[in-house]
């Protein structure tokens, strides 16, 4: 007669085997009922012998209490990203470079789908899953071990006797199958909640839940495509290494191909492109990897991507549909955004029923009218865009879209500034008020937790909050009378508001939502003036004299603080206990030889990331802008620069290559004598 421990282990083995068959190979051998029976047997036996419960038991996937926050984890091996290519020619050019650098006539590749999910690093010690982290910035990620444990395709224990290394670091991608995505979204819609835009967003939200119970309700899956540590056991090619992962019980990409030359990889791309819509998960291209590890090593890597692999992406998906109506939404600044309401259309597995038309000028430029047929594009997780109107012969078109003269929410007059139409209603416009409140409490501004869109809408609709300062008059009783509040959440929110009463100056400035004052300008203003009072009294000319503040920003700041209503709200906040912390002004600024100079970065730098380059420029007083204009002083171009380089050349903007840029920086480092 087997001992209870033996019985427990036998049941666990059985369940693990069926988990692998079901979740990894999609080849179940038993019915759901039979599976449930094994599972219940195990649960019952574990209840009887709780001392014998092991962390790798299939019953222990959802455990642990909600975390206050994720721990940061330094990756053992940095998680590189991939350069992307869009055309066959550029993929062939990649192959030519690889062969040239290796001095080889023929190089074989391993090609796999590029899963549209989230990259993770998994660590197994002695076959037990001990740690899992998100990619983060590639060097430091977040510890999501508890959430990853809920993924049934992920073995908590590797298959015994299969020769896995004692310490194993695996890289994989977490994603959600389309069927699960649709089912979950349908549930959300039925409950009147906003559905997720795509499976990737849903998976990302699920993986980053602090409470693993919530993750467990979202069926995620995973595939593993690499392992990082080298041992004697490691095969000599990527293709075979992935087979090892499979033999140890890990899920691997089922669709993958060994390609004797780049031509087979191109054919794999075409093939995947054809299969793409029929797959039960989202892929956004294929990944092509030099197969031999010794060659991978020889080719090496750049700062953030290997020189031996590329992503060969699919073109964005486009579909035709009809415009049912053009609605107009109002944002916090009062900007009116026309939105095309579409006949729902499936674009690669996601139903699209609206697309932003950005502004009234864009509607006119694209000449989109109700009833028109339009081409809609969905690129990754970007909001769908209307590419163009499609002429349908013999169609009767409706009247052109007329920019509204009145705000659709508060009926105030609208005014046009540049391409954008604004509502003049300011605080009487409930849409603007909702938007300003959402902005005030947001992470980048005052960072007050527990105040979602829905709650804010209730505050405004119930007239509890008529301006920003009213937030500080809310009482627990008022909150408890609203939908969705309970004792705990109400107490927490009141506490959060209380804690927000000592903001630092830049955050408060951002929170006020002054047009053109984002995080950077808020910092500039705070550092220049030190106190809110001084900023309130600053004149336009004086503001404009500050480096980085142009006439538009100066005018906007001045007029914001001239507006009696705004001053009243700020004063009321003060009376209600909001005390904005002052900033100590730097005694003497460090020398800034690049002050007034603007730079644009393009392409990949070998010795530093773009972020590092930006910091270096800023430390010397320069600015880094995102696009090239006549005013740009220098364009810094790394390898594979984009269209910015071309633009620099046409505008005669000096271009610095990496070596010149480094020399330039060292010339400009002020002497410390
Ligand atoms: S290999 C050093 N293989 O794509 C090579 N990545 O754009 C690193 N991805 O961050 C990645 N499917 O999250 C590789 N079959 C696959 C992949 C894959 C999806 C993701 C991965 C990576 C991103 C790069």
Note down, in words, how this protein is organized:
This protein has 673 residues and is α+β, with helices and mostly antiparallel strands. 36% of the residues lie in helices and 20% in strands. It contains 24 helices and 22 strands. The strands form 5 sheets. Strands 12, 13, 14, 15, 16, 17 and 18 form a 7-stranded antiparallel sheet that branches. Bound molecules: 2-(butylsulfanyl)adenosine.
Essential attributes:
22 strands; 5 domains; binds 2-(butylsulfanyl)adenosine; seven-stranded antiparallel β-sheet; OB fold (Dihydrolipoamide Acetyltransferase, E2P); D-amino Acid Aminotransferase, Chain A, domain 1; five-stranded mixed β-sheet; 673 residues
CATH architecture of the largest domain, please? 2-Layer Sandwich
Count of DSSP strands: 22
Low-confidence regions: none
Strand content: 15-25%
- Ligand species: 2-(butylsulfanyl)adenosine
Helical run tally:
24
Portion in helices: 25-40%
Radius of gyration, taken over Cα atoms and rounded to an integer in Å: 29 Å
Distance between the ends: 85 Å
Assembly context of the chains: single chain
CATH domain class of the largest domain:
Alpha Beta
Helix-strand makeup class: alpha+beta
- The name of the CATH superfamily of the largest domain reads DNA ligase/mRNA capping enzyme
User: Please, what is the average pLDDT?
Assistant: 89
What profile does the largest beta sheet have?
A: 7 strands, antiparallel
CATH topology of the largest domain: D-amino Acid Aminotransferase, Chain A, domain 1
Domain unit count: 5
Give the CA-based shape.
globular
